């Protein structure tokens, strides 16, 4: 019999609802995976096993009945510590659930732990977590990607059937591509941001990690739709599984565009190979492949780092040691309370971005930096709209390389920022994108490709993703834990 | 664009971040590099482009003005505070220099 | 700075022309806060009206209150200002412990309302002050700083007020004296209360004012360096604080110095201005569009609704009281100054009282009684409903009670509510107008005072007054004076000299 931790959300929920499986046993199977893997990969932060067991033993009902999941530690969970991977929030316990968490709970899903992440979701490697990095289960010397790396690792190793992450600029898709997972960044406004600790509010979206397109669509359908607590949610944001085809034939008659002009240079050969594999597989599934043109993605990186940091500089102002979280000792006047608490409470990447964002908004520089980035954002969105006008989705690599080594880019912020070069456009334009696993490198590292669609185009992305998934075929290659690897 | 240490110091005060001399130096160097990279936006010819701050074009639908009881008890709200007296949040005094 | 204005300072003040602009924060009387459904209520236990949103907890988001927008439209309509169909919220970034997010959600370069005027003139001499803009923003919490000599070391913070809706109304720098600033605030307070968008209670902080002040030579068109005075939280403080700052700046300029741009605090109790110097106040607000709120749209029909449902404005009411009710200017000013009082007055008139008589009652006895009893006019109306006051006025008009007795009836009604006529009768305060009964008393008076009666008949008109006084005393003041006078004269003339 297949162990619970390897099974899909739909199967588990079906069995729990029908009384064929016990939700507590399912939870325990996933917890056992955590016990086995976490010492080696450090995917989890706070957890509440007792509360989870109580929920699991209370006969959960709904489309995700009894399905264990993990949430990134920047999603507020009532009564469960939420640190954002930061020392400044180390002691913080929220009094409320994020809307997405509440909707998953209402659908019967069982949360038992929070996932490690780059501090305040700022990073692409998990090296910025104040609580130590997570590691890639396919190669423990390599990063799992970031900033939602802990969520990715937890899903890849079977600690959770699925996990929630968040994206501001590629933070779900990039780790999904590094860890052999389906990763969704939805249309801006389809998922509520209420309870997601803000980084770059106009870019932030909650995202989903799953091991199949079907599971991803199921989880998304439970969470999507307007929220009275978030005015930026779309009135038409709900998503229904009715009529959604996730079979091998799902892509028939659809067309994808490949932006060859930006894929020519600097692409890792193994990534290039994966792109070719994906195009070929989609072609076999009856999808037409066209060529489209996009602005150089470096402009996206430049735009992103001005806008996201500007918003972050304001969003992170509330962490000041007054109402919650860490407060520095020996601060005897208000100004030093602020500067010491924030100087000691934030890590170096967060401080770097707060400084950059504060600078971009400051008197005398606003027009040259912040406003210019807003203008570039409109250009980038128009450009993506134009590229999507004759096709159903774009197909391009999620990351320019497979997972890199820990420490490889840690000392060069710019090199690190460039690992998000292909993902950021979708965040700036507010359009959906889906990472789909597309095989492995010769060294056994996963490589993922992304499908990028128009606003509200998740259904199409799921169809294309399912077609790609089936066409590439084969049994799932799970990561293997070397004996003695647990440190 | 080169950012010097004094600029970083000023920005750090605006952002209420205490930085060491070594940090000031490092951030000055790193931020200068990022701003050099960002300068490539000039090549896009954006003069006539309207700024885009938000991607959704819909207008806000405001909520009806109706109060509900506070969902947080005072004890719950204060429980996360580093310093409180059971009624108020406490902070060190603001140092104000007032002169006649 | 407590020194009185000396002769030298007076001359200095005259040599300079003040230019004053006011920024008034109007706290809106909504049921809930601007961005969350917490109650908007003054005086609750500290930190009990709070939620994740107004406490700035991580992950919380603002949700706009529709009524606050309606109130802004109402004010715009009354000022004849322009409403923008699309306006943008922006974040104003600065750190302060009573500001939960360390940024304030406000409006910056695209406010909801611009332009319009507020008239601060007298009748027949309008003086419209141009308004720069009105925008919506959230209030901060409240900090309680340690006393200078107290034992307490910490500042205490209460977030009940955080997120309460405000309209910030900014005038153009167009006021020319502290007296004009005083009138501006008085008129504005009256207007916003009439509009029903705030209680306008300055003691509770419902209206808060900052003033920008600069001086220039008369005839100059360029503005001088301006300073900002904060904490002007009573109408008196606005007037006196501005006066003090005009004196301070004039003294600097007269001494050949330069005014430095700065922020000042005014202590009205000691008439002292202090310059605030603190790193906390070195700001670069770094405004940028609030990403958590979509642009605010106002429809034509919302603007039209605000216009249509506008209550009668003070100027219109003044006009009506003067021309339709024929009240003297003084009465109109006193009555319209407080709309609740004016409403009560109108109900008295509607119940049948003559306008001038009703006005005398309301401005006189009613004002005195409410003040002595510490009651609002609404509370008073429960004890003496307008119809009963009208009935009392009618008793006096019909001569059933004298003017003097009517006041006693009024007093009695406060203690023992009832219809005025039955109160008057129960207490024996009804005037004696029956000639038969009075004639008997007249006979008695004449018999008891033959001397004065004789004097009157001898042509001493003064003796009549004495006899009338005796008559009134004998009836306990209840004789109808006119009837008594006629009967006395008739009796004196009828009775021949002995």
Oligomer: heterotrimer
Task: Report the structural category of chain B.
Answer: mainly alpha
Major sheet attributes of chain A: 11 strands, mixed
Mean pLDDT of chain A: 96
Overall average pLDDT of chain B? 91
Biggest protein-protein contact in the assembly: A-B, 71 and 53 residues
Overall geometry of chain A: globular
Number of helices of chain B: 3
Features:
A: 487 residues, alpha/beta, 11 strands, globular, B: 100 residues, mainly alpha, 6% strand
How would you describe the overall organization of this protein?
The complex is a heterotrimer of chains A (487), B (100) and C (498). Chain A has 487 residues and is α/β, with parallel strands linked by helices. Helix content of chain A is 37%, strand content 12%. Chain A has 15 helices and eleven strands. Chain A has an eleven-stranded mixed beta sheet with strand order 1-3-2-4-6-5-10-11-9-7-8, with helices on both faces. The mean pLDDT of chain A is 96. Chain B has helices spanning 5-14, 21-38, 74-78; strands at residues 89-91, 97-99. Chain B is flat, with a radius of gyration of 23 Å. In chain C, α6 runs antiparallel to α7 (329-336). Chain C is built from 17 helices and 17 strands. In chain C, strands 1, 2, 6, 7, 8, 11, 12, 13, 14 and 15 form a ten-stranded mixed beta sheet that branches. In chain C, strands 5-4-16 form a three-stranded antiparallel beta sheet, with no helix packed on it. A two-stranded antiparallel ribbon of chain C has the order 3-17. Classes of the chains: A alpha/beta (487), B mainly alpha (100), C alpha+beta (498).
Secondary-structure blueprint of this entry?
The complex is a heterotrimer of chains A (487), B (100) and C (498).
Chain A lengths: L8 H9 L5 H19 L2 E4 L1 H8 L11 E5 L26 H8 L3 E6 L33 H8 L5 E6 L5 H6 L3 E4 L19 E6 L2 H11 L31 E4 L10 H16 L3 E4 L5 H19 L18 H12 L2 H14 L5 H22 L4 E5 L15 H5 L6 H6 L3 E8 L5 E7 L5 H15 L15
Parallel strand pairs in A: 2-3, 2-4, 7-8, 7-9
Antiparallel strand pairs in A: 1-3, 4-6, 5-6, 5-10, 9-11, 10-11
Helix pairs in contact in A: 7-15, 8-15, 9-11, 9-12
Chain B lengths: L4 H10 L6 H18 L35 H5 L10 E3 L5 E3 L1
Helix pairs in contact in B: 1-2
Chain C lengths: L6 H9 L1 E11 L38 H14 L2 E2 L2 E2 L1 E5 L9 E5 L5 E2 L2 E3 L8 E11 L3 E3 L10 E4 L6 E7 L6 H18 L11 E10 L10 E6 L2 H20 L8 E5 L4 E6 L10 E2 L6 E2 L2 H9 L5 H10 L5 H8 L2 H12 L4 H19 L3 H7 L2 H12 L5 H13 L4 H7 L8 H14 L1 H8 L4 H13 L6 H14 L4
Parallel strand pairs in C: 13-14
Antiparallel strand pairs in C: 1-11, 1-12, 2-6, 3-17, 4-5, 4-16, 6-8, 7-8, 8-11, 9-10, 12-13, 14-15
């Amino acid at each position: 019999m297949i162990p619970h931790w390897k099974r899909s959300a739909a199967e588990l929920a079906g069995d729990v609802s029908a009384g064929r499986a016990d939700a507590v046993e399912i939870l325990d199977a996933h917890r056992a995976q955590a016990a086995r893997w976490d010492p080696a990969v450090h995917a989890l932060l706070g957890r509440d096993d007792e509360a989870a067991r109580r929920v699991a033993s209370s006969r959960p009902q709904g489309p995700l009945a009894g399905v264990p999941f993990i949430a990134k530690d920047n999603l507020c969970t009532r009564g469960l510590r939420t640190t954002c991977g930061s020392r400044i929030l180390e002691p913080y316990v929220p009094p409320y659930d994020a809307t997405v968490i509440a909707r998953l709970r209402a659908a019967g899903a069982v949360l038992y732990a929070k996932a490690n992440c780059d501090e305040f979701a700022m990073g692409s490697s998990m090296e910025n977590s104040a609580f130590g990095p997570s590691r890639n289960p396919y190669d423990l010397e390599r990063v799992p990607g970031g900033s939602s790396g802990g969520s990715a690792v937890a899903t890849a190793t079977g600690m959770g059937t699925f996990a929630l992450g968040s994206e501001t600029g590629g933070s779900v898709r990039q780790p999904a591509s590094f860890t052999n997972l389906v990763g969704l960044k939805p249309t801006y406004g389809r998922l509520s941001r209420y309870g997601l600790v803000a980084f770059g509010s106009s870019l932030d979206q909650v995202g989903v990690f799953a091991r199949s397109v079907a599971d991803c669509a199921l989880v998304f359908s439970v969470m999507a739709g307007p929220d009275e607590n978030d005015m930026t949610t779309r009135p038409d944001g709900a998503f229904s599984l009715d009529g959604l085809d996730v079979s091998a034939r799902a892509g028939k008659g659809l067309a994808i565009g490949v932006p060859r002009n930006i894929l020519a240079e600097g692409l890792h050969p193994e990534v290039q190979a994966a792109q070719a594999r994906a195009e070929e597989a989609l072609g076999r599934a009856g999808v037409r492949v066209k060529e489209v043109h996009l602005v150089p993605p470096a402009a996206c990186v430049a735009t992103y780092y001005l806008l996201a940091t500007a918003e972050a500089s304001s969003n992170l102002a509330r962490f000041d040691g007054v109402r919650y979280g860490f407060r520095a000792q020996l601060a005897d006047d208000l100004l030093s309370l602020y500067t010491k608490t924030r100087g000691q409470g934030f890590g170096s990447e967060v401080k770097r971005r707060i400084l950059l964002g504060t600078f971009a908004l400051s008197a005398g520089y606003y027009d040259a930096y912040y406003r210019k980035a807003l203008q570039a954002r409109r250009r980038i969105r128009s450009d993506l709209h134009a590229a999507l006008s004759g096709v159903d989705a774009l197909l391009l690599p999620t990351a320019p390389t497979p997972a890199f080594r820990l420490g490889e880019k840690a000392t060069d912020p710019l090199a690190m920022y460039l690992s998000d070069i292909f993902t950021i456009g979708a965040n700036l334009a507010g359009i959906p994108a889906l990472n789909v696993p597309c095989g492995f490198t010769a060294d056994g590292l996963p490589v993922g490709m992304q499908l990028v669609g128009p606003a509200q185009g998740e259904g199409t992305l799921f169809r294309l993703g399912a077609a790609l998934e089936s066409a590439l075929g084969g049994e799932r290659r799970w990561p293997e834990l070397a004996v003695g690897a647990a440190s | 664009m080169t950012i010097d240490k004094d600029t970083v110091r000023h920005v750090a005060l605006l952002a209420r971040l205490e930085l060491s001399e070594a940090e000031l130096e490092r951030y000055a160097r790193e931020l200068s590099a990022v701003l050099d990279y960002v300068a490539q936006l000039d090549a896009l010819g954006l003069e006539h482009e309207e700024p885009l701050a938000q991607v959704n074009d819909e207008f806000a639908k405001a909520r009806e003005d109706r109060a509900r009881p506070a969902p947080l008890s005072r004890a719950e709200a204060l429980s996360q505070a580093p310093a409180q007296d059971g009624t108020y949040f406490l902070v060190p005094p603001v140092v104000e220099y007032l002169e006649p | 700075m407590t020194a009185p204005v000396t002769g030298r300072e007076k001359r200095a003040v005259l040599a300079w022309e003040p230019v004053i602009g006011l920024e008034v924060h109007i706290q809106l009387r909504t049921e809930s806060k601007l961005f969350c459904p917490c109650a908007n209520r003054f005086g609750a236990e500290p930190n009990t009206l709070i939620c994740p949103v107004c406490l700035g907890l991580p992950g919380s988001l603002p949700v706009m209150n529709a009524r606050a927008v309606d109130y802004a439209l109402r004010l715009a309509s009354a000022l004849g200002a322009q409403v923008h169909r699309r306006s943008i919220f922006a974040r104003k970034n600065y750190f302060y412990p009573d500001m939960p997010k360390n940024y304030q959600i406000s409006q910056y370069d695209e406010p909801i309302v611009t332009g319009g005027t507020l008239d601060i003139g007298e009748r027949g001499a309008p003086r419209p002050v141009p308004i720069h803009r009105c925008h919506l923003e959230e209030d901060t919490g409240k900090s309680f700083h340690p006393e200078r000599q107290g034992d307490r070391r910490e500042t205490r913070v209460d977030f009940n007020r955080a997120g309460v809706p405000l309209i910030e109304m900014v005038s153009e720098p167009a006021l020319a004296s502290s007296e004009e600033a005083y009138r501006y605030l008085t008129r504005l307070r009256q207007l916003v209360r009439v509009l029903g968008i705030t209680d306008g209670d300055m003691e509770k902080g419902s209206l808060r004012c900052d003033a920008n002040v600069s001086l220039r030579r008369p005839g100059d068109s360029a503005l001088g360096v301006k300073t900002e005075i904060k904490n002007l939280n009573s109408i008196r403080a606005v007037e006196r604080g501005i006066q003090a700052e005009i004196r301070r700046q004039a003294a600097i300029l007269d001494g050949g110095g330069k005014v430095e741009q700065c922020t000042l605090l005014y202590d009205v109790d000691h008439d002292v201005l202090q310059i605030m110097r603190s790193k906390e106040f070195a700001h670069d607000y770094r405004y940028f569009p609030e990403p958590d709120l979509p642009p605010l749209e106002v429809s034509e029909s919302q603007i039209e609704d605000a216009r249509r449902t506008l209550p009668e404005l003070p100027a219109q009411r003044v006009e009506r009281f003067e021309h339709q009710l024929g009240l003297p200017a003084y009465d109109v000013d006193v009555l319209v100054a407080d709309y609740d009082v004016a409403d009560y007055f109108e109900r008295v008139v509607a119940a049948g009282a003559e306008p001038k008589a009703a006005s005398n009652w309301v401005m006189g006895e009613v004002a005195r009684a409410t003040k002595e009893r510490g009651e609002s006019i609404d509370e008073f109306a429960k004890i003496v409903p307008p119809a009963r006051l009208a009935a009392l006025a009618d008793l006096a008009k019909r001569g059933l009670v004298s003017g003097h007795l009517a006041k006693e009836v009024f007093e009695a009604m406060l203690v023992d509510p009832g219809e005025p006529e039955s109160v008057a009768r129960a207490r024996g305060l009804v005037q004696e107008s029956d000639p038969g009964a009075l004639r008997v008393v007249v006979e008695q008076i004449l018999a008891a005072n033959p001397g004065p009666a004789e004097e009157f008949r001898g042509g001493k008109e003064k003796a009549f007054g004495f006899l009338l006084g005796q008559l009134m005393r004998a009836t306990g003041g209840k004789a109808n004076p006119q009837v008594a006078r006629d009967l006395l004269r008739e009796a004196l003339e009828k009775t021949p000299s002995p």
